[in-house]
Amino acid sequence: MIQKFFAALISICFFCSLAKADELWLKNISTAKLNELYQQIGYTGITEKSWLMLPSKRYPAVFLKKFPADFAKIEDSEQRNSLFIKIMAPLALKLNQDILKERQLILDIDRDFKQNQKISSTQLKTLEEKAAKYDVFTRLKDHERIDFLVSELLKRIDIISPSIMISLAAIETDFGSSRIVKEGNSLYKVLQWHTQSGLKPIGEDENADYRIKTYPDIYQAIKDFALRINSNINFDFFRTARAEIHSSTNPEQLIGKPLIAYAFTNSELKNYAGIIEYILSYYELFIIDQSTLDTTVITKQIIKKYAN
Question: Phi/psi at 46 (nearest 5 deg)?
């Protein structure tokens, strides 16, 4: 009797957790199964542009940890590119959702500091930890230090247009079909110097003392590259331009196109910004910049059927 009771209790708790879940994370899934899932939850978009969720501008909270093993085998390039964008869009939107949560911590500290001219020890610890994470340094002390750190962190901890993140990943991985995605979950070809970890370059200078950074999953690759944009000194001009745009627009709807000219200058590709603009415009990715995540489509039945 007791065993039956606990078995029933475990079963109830399991299905309760399914009912409350609002995200679906997938590690191993084939392209056929993924397309089946997208069809079932209505992630079908508009005719010929299945990645554009119009008019709702809502994307399902379905996140892949890895691209399907057979993804690069999709022969039709338009179908492959379409599926690439559909995989990337929810991840890029989740990135900004997570960044905004982090930004809110600094906004709360800023509010308390302005109201009380002091912050708690917990808030100070948070501020110092974020300063270390985002590479903010100052020798200022006391109130001046807090004021400086808050100001710099609000400039750095900010969203990055999904259209830019998707376009850059498309360029660096040939829309998800390259070796670095399959072997290392790498989306932005981040390089590591003087190390033996990571992927050896092929078709470049194979004797060079660098490796392509690898990740446990593709979301970690997205987060790592976003952190570089938001912290590395080479992207300070990008952050300045973003802050200026923010002064006259909704901070949750920062459109990628105005930022393209400030995007990335350290690529060997000529007219890199022009390539980004072409991809963004051709696939109308600016629509994703104005979109949100939809958690209502993730039911317990969907999770039970597809979760792995």
Answer: -105, 165
Q: Is residue 170 domain-resident?
A: yes
CATH (domain of 279)? 1.10.530.10
pLDDT tens digits along 260-301: 655 555 455 567 778 888 899 899 999 999 999 999 999 989
Can you give the pTM of this predicted structure? 0.87
Q: Identify the residue whose tokens are 């247009």.
A: 161
Q: Which residues contact 17 (CB under 8 A, 6 or more apart)?
A: none
The strand pair at 292-294 and 58-60 is best described as: parallel
Residue 124 lies in a domain: yes
| DSSP string for residues in 256-297 | SGGGGGGS----SSTTHHHHHHHHHHHTTTHHHHT-EEE-TT
* H-run or E-run covering 15: helix 2-20
Tell whether 4 is covered by a domain: no
The number of distinct structural domains making up the chain is 1
Residue 276: how many CB atoms within 10 A of its CB? 27
**pLDDT tens-digit profile of 234-257?**
888 888 888 877 776 555 445 656
Q: What residues make up the domain containing 111? A: 22-306
* Residue 2 located in a structural domain: no
